[in-house]
Design goal:
Number of domains: 2
Helix content: 40-55%
Structural class: mainly alpha
Order of helices and strands: HHHHHHHHEHHE
Oligomer: single chain
Shape: extended
CATH architecture of the largest domain: Orthogonal Bundle
Number of helices: 10
CATH superfamily of the largest domain: Homeodomain-like
Number of strands: 2
CATH topology of the largest domain: Arc Repressor Mutant, subunit A
């Protein structure tokens, strides 16, 4: 499994540079993947998006320093690539359920941490509960799908256009939802409204689904 070795190289690189600026394209280069493909492979292998993994590993490292040294919180925060003590405190509390100061006073207790995973076939088997990487082909009955389509530049690109294109697509979609052969109920509308609030941050496909039967 060559991709496991590549991801492990990337993880080792992250660990060696945890307190430095870590551009994703640089880590992807270590794994010899394109940035886009690397993010998909990393998430599938580790179970966490690479940015989330880095943030949680930094917070875990920072917590270790808070508990084992008397360094100032702001110094620990800056060393772990947080711009301010406030942003560090917010991220720390979101992950551990308490502030850095509270952690230092009360100790680690049962707070969850993000440990460096040991990538192996056994680890993958455990992560996906014996799921196979072999594709399974399923033949379904005929379906009728109606939708609106558009094109945009991926969210991971510096030239991303999803935040401009997708709101217009959603607006057109909602105006024409009565054309769907499926009756819209309250639960569907609630789901769509929740989805619309975060659509600009989701690398989705270039189409909006109206309904099927």
């Amino acid at each position: 499994m060559d991709h496991l070795k590549r991801v492990e190289r990337a993880i080792d690189y992250i660990e060696a540079h945890l307190c430095e600026h870590l551009p994703i394209d640089e880590i992807a280069g270590v794994a010899e993947y394109s940035m886009w493909h690397f993010q998909k492979v990393f998430t599938a292998t580790v179970g966490e998006p690479v940015k989330d993994y880095i943030r949680k590993r930094r917070l875990t490292s920072a917590m270790s320093q808070l508990l084992s040294t008397e360094r100032r919180i702001i110094d620990v925060a800056v060393e772990h690539q947080f711009e301010s003590q406030e942003s560090f405190t917010r991220a720390f509390k979101a992950m551990f359920g308490r502030t850095p100061g509270e952690c230092r006073k009360r100790g680690q207790g049962t707070m969850p941490t993000m440990r460096k995973p040991r990538i192996s076939a056994e680890y993958i088997d455990h992560l996906y509960r014996s799921m196979t990487m072999e594709p399974q082909f399923v033949v379904n009955g005929e379906r009728f799908i109606v939708g609106l389509a558009t094109h945009f530049i991926s969210i991971v690109s510096p030239d991303k256009s999803n935040h401009i294109v997708l709101p217009k697509l959603w607006q057109a979609y909602m105006q024409r939802r009565h054309e769907s052969p499926i009756k819209w109920d309250r639960k569907i509308l609630e789901f769509v409204n929740r989805f619309r609030k975060v659509h600009a941050n989701i690398p989705m496909s270039s189409g909006t689904w109206l309904g099927r039967k």
